[in-house]
Amino acid sequence: MEVVNQRSALLSNYEVLTLLKELESDHLARTRTALRIKKEEEAAGLPRNHVPQEEVLENLRTIEVEAIQYLSADHQPSLKQTDASISQLTRSLSRFDLTKAEKLQIVNLAPTEAVELYVVHCRRTRRSAR
């Protein structure tokens, strides 16, 4: 099975969502561990010596949470996509003369109507006319 290139300069919405969910999971695990240690220290009557190793800026956390919510919305195709489905789609698109950015737009938009593909084509036509 071909995996979506993790070092690509362009990321699909699916890849961004996957990364943000991993970061969220890591953050929750660190928070649970910090709370457990704090409770153990308090139960043992120890002074609070534990200093969090990592402080995440609240603004960044807010952006992460909102991005996860947006990319997880019912109208977003990223919920139904997988590494395999994206790889298959991009392989199928290789027979057309499309740039990486155009393929990415198609992956992110997941068009179901020809008119939706027209938007990608119009942008390309305007760009090449310059």
From TrEMBL:
<dbReference type="Pfam" id="PF03874">
    <property type="entry name" value="RNA_pol_Rpb4"/>
</dbReference>
<keyword id="KW-0539">Nucleus</keyword>
<dbReference type="InterPro" id="IPR038324">
    <property type="entry name" value="Rpb4/RPC9_sf"/>
</dbReference>
<dbReference type="InterPro" id="IPR010997">
    <property type="entry name" value="HRDC-like_sf"/>
</dbReference>
<keyword id="KW-0240">DNA-directed RNA polymerase</keyword>
<comment type="similarity">
    <text>Belongs to the eukaryotic RPC9 RNA polymerase subunit family.</text>
</comment>
<dbReference type="InterPro" id="IPR038846">
    <property type="entry name" value="RPC9"/>
</dbReference>
<protein>
    <recommendedName>
        <fullName>DNA-directed RNA polymerase III subunit RPC9</fullName>
    </recommendedName>
</protein>
<keyword id="KW-0804">Transcription</keyword>
<dbReference type="InterPro" id="IPR005574">
    <property type="entry name" value="Rpb4/RPC9"/>
</dbReference>
